[in-house]
């Protein structure tokens, strides 16, 4: 099996397939993603989320903000299972979604845990990390604000954020409040979309 041109092991493929089956089952009862995107689960959500790990395939500690239906947090945790290292702390305040995430991690033997708390309270509970991810949560300025507790003054912590076609406007807005290094990774899944890699965060105002 390949995702975005990357060969995926049989074990990881089986984990991803089991996650997809669980997702489809739970999505009938709770709103995990926009219903219009359910029919394109593998391309729109799983393959798209897998890009985070493909960009940063290291056994580090992740914090996934607003994990929702598990994208990209559970997908990263599944890939980490193959490395037998690293961990994903999934932060999701919605208790029904958090219950799904716990089930998905447990049944796929993925390397992660769920924190059913507000993002603003997560740093105290989770502690330091090496990478932060978020998808379809808020604009870049808001994401950096959420991530600041982990990233400010810490050279080794990076943020990886999925963004759509208007991402340059979000960058301009964020640069009004923050100073940071930025790498733009073109999406292999969605045309005109990117994954923004943020590092060396400093506060301007």
UniProtKB/TrEMBL annotation:
One of its GO terms (cellular component) is cytosol. Transmembrane segments: none annotated. Its EC number is 2.1.1.170. S-adenosyl-L-methionine binds at residues 66, 71, 119-120, 135. InterPro entries: rRNA_ssu_MeTfrase_G (IPR003682), SAM-dependent_MTases_sf (IPR029063). Keywords: Cytoplasm, Methyltransferase, rRNA processing, S-adenosyl-L-methionine, Transferase. It catalyses: guanosine(527) in 16S rRNA + S-adenosyl-L-methionine = N(7)-methylguanosine(527) in 16S rRNA + S-adenosyl-L-homocysteine. It is an enzyme of class 2 (transferase). GO terms for molecular function: rRNA (guanine-N7-)-methyltransferase activity. It is found in: Cytoplasm. It comes from the Bacteria. Belongs to the methyltransferase superfamily. RNA methyltransferase RsmG family. Specifically methylates the N7 position of guanine in position 527 of 16S rRNA. HAMAP family: 16SrRNA_methyltr_G. This is Ribosomal RNA small subunit methyltransferase G. The gene is rsmG.
């Amino acid at each position: 099996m390949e995702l975005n041109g990357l060969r995926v092991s049989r074990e990881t493929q089986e984990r991803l397939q089991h996650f997809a089956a669980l997702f489809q089952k739970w999505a009938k009862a709770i709103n995990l993603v926009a219903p219009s995107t359910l029919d394109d689960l593998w391309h729109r959500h799983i393959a798209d989320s897998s890009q985070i790990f493909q960009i940063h395939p290291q056994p580090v500690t992740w914090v996934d903000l607003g994990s929702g239906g598990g994208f990209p947090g559970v997908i990263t945790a599944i890939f980490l299972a193959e490395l037998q290292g690293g961990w994903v702390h999934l932060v999701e305040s919605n208790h029904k979604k958090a219950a799904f995430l716990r089930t998905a991690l447990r049944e796929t033997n993925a390397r992660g845990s769920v924190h059913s708390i507000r993002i603003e309270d997560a740093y105290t509970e989770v502690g330091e990390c090496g990478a932060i991810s978020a998808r379809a949560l808020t604009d870049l300025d808001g994401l950096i604000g959420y991530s600041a507790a982990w990233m400010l003054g810490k050279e080794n912590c990076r943020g990886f954020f999925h963004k759509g076609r208007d991402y340059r406007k979000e960058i301009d807005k964020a640069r009004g409040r923050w100073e940071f290094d930025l790498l733009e990774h073109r999406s292999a899944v969605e045309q005109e979309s990117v994954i923004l890699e943020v590092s060396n965060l400093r506060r301007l105002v």
